[in-house]
Amino acid sequence: MSAPLPLIARTRLEKAAHDNGFDRPAGEDGAWLIFDSSHAPGRLWLTVWAGAHPVAAFSHPGVARALTDHGVAVTHPVPAEAVGARSVTGYDQLHALLRRAALLARTLPDALWERYEAQTAALPKTTEAERLVVQRVGQDVFRQGLLDLWGGRCALSGLAVPALLRASHAKPWKDCANDQERLDAHNGLLLAAHLDAAFDAGLITVEDDGRVVVSAKLDGEARGILGLAGPARVRGLAAGHRVYLAWHRERVFEGG
Questions:
Q1: Average pLDDT of 151-160?
Q2: Domain ranges within the chain, ordered by starting residue
Q3: Dihedral of the CA atoms 144, 147, 149, 154 (nearest 10)?
Q4: Which helix (H) or strand (E) covers residue 15, if one does?
Q5: Exposed/middle/buried for residue 227 (C-beta within 10 Å: 0-12, 13-18, 19+)
Q6: C-alpha angle with apex 60: 54 to 63, nearest 5 degrees?
Q7: What pLDDT, in 10s, does the model give residues 17-60?
Q8: pLDDT per residue over 138-153, tens digit each?
């Protein structure tokens, strides 16, 4: 049987969970504290190993896969329902990990669509004007999701001025097969307005590894003005981005 958590560790874990969106304590599993969220899908487990290192385990597969830039994956036994766990060196790092996990849980596939469905369920959709209102709600949900997913920064330049950032679809809204595609946070990048325009016009695209490819239609002067004179890369892409970026490269990008 696992030893109980020291009181100070328990208190700090509970605070980290609550402060970062996992606001519903759901019991314990041995030395693991269990939390749910009122705002996002998925369950969280927290404990401390070796007397110092906080460990977080997650039930949401997309969240678990996307957290590779926080802490290290652990191979110790984890709760049966968990699909992945990360160990961090201290509580500041734990807060950062949980903050990122909560944002991801609210933006990964189906999360934005479910939010959109809830917000538009009671809205009429008969006339063209009514459908435009519903579409506007979807675009606002998508934009907020990308702001969350990318931490309020342009995925390419790092610009952190929300008024100057745009939610860019890789597969355009009109070409999506359904609302799930339109509101999949992986079907887009958060970009500064000038880069959004270039991406939308097919003058830049992104490889699966994040490398930015610039169209030959942009000369050296234009590249310099756009900040694309040298190599550029989008960091933080997930596996879910690949199908949409492939569509953009094949159907939108104007290579020549």
A1: 93
A2: 7-107, 128-251
A3: 150
A4: helix 7-19
A5: middle
A6: 70
A7: 999 989 999 999 989 999 999 877 789 999 998 767 999 999 98
A8: 999 999 989 988 889 9
